[in-house]
User: Fold these one by one.
Assistant:
Number 1:
Amino acid sequence: MDKPWHLYVMAVFYILAGINHFRKPDVYYKIIPPFLTNKKFINEISGLLEIMFGIYLCIPIFSNLAAISIIILLALIFPANIYMLINEKASLGFPKWILYLRLPIQFILMYWASQNADFTRII
C-alpha cells in the first residue's frame, strides 16, 4: 500500500458504485437523459468502467491513468445529474435540495480524483 489511504477509499467507492449498476439497472435507466438512446449499454459500460477504474486505482502502474479516467467519466455522466434535477421521473423521488447538492459534489469527486493524478504523464 504505497498510495495514500484515501485512494483506496476512492477505489472501493467506485467499485461498489459500478457493481450497483448491475444490481439495480432500472434506477440508472431512469436517470439517463432521453437523448442517449441505448440505456442498457450506457448503464453497463459506465458500471464496468467504474469497477475497472476502481480496481486500477489500486495498481500503481495504472493508478494515474485511472484517476484521470475517473475525472473524464464524471464529466461525461454530469448530464444525468442535471436530468435528475429537471425531470420529475428521473429525480427518483429525491428532494430538489439534494439534487442541487449533487451538482457540486460531482466537482468535488473530480477534485478528489485529481489529487491522485499526475497530468504530466498518462501512465
Number 2:
Amino acid sequence: MKAVSPYLVSMMAGLWALGLSDAGLLAAETASKSGEGVVARIGDTEVGEQDIRAALDGLDERERATVAKDPALLNQVVRSMLIQRLVLKQAANEKWEQKPEIAAQLERSRRSTITESYLKSQAEKSGAVPSETELRQAYDGAKDSLFVPKQFQLAQIFIAIPQEGGEDAEAKAKAKLDSVIKSLSHAGSDFSSIARLNSDESNSASKGGEIGWLLEKQIQPEIRAKVATLKKGATTAPLRLLDGWHIVKVMEVKEGYTPPFEEVRAALAEKVRTERVKAATQAYLSQLIQENPVVINEIALSKLAADSKP
C-alpha cells in the first residue's frame, strides 16, 4: 500500500477495525445471502456496501475528501478487509479465540478499549472542540512556527572524482566536464537528456537530473550560495566540491510563506483538540485518584517481583 499522510492512519485503522467487528462480519454474511450490495469478494468472503458506508460515515470531512480524490486508497483498504475476514474465518474454524493466551489478550484489549473510550468521553465533556475564535487565536500565536522557508526545485549533473584516484582521476573528470559544458552550450540543448547520459549520480540521472524540492537550509552551503542568486531556468557554473563537479539547474523557486488560515485550519483544530483532551484526561485522573487514594502493599509487591526472576 502506498504511503499516506499521518492523519489518514486513523482512518485506515478505523476501516481495518470494521473488518474485525462482529457487526461487520454479520453485514457481510447478510450481503452474501441476499446477493445484493456486494462490493468485493475473496472466495466466499464478501464486503458489502453497508460495510463501506459505515466506515466512510465514521470519517471526518477532510478524510472523506481525501478518499473521494483518491479511490485507490479505499480500494487497498477493502482488499485488506477481505484478507482479514478470510483469516478470521480460518481462525474461527479452529476456535482460536478460545485458546487461554488469546482469550487473555482479548480481555486486556477489551479493558483497554473501554478505559480509553471512557476517558475520552470524560475529557470531551470539558469542551475539547475549539471554537472558530479560539482557532484564529491559535493561528495568530503559531504563525512563526507555521512559516515555510524558501524552497528550490533543483536538477543536477554530477561528475564524480574518486578521492583516491589521483591526478589521472582528476584529468578524466575534467575531460568529461568539458564535454558536458560543450553539450550544454549548444543552442536548444536539453539539460535533462545530458544529465541522463552523463551524471554519475544514478538516482537523479534516471530522472533527468531532478533532485526534487529542497528547503534552502537543506542545500549544501557551497551550492546554496550560488542557486540563491539564480532565477527559474538558470544553471550554475561548474562547482568543484570534495566529491566532484556539480552543475545545478534551478527548475522552480517558491518564496518563503506562511500558510493561510484555511489551509491549516483542520490540522490546527486537531492539534488544539488533542492538547485539550490530554490536559482534561490528566485532570480527570488526578481528581479520580484524589477521591480514591491508591494503597499498595510494597512488601507483597517486592516478593512478587523477586519470585518472577528467572
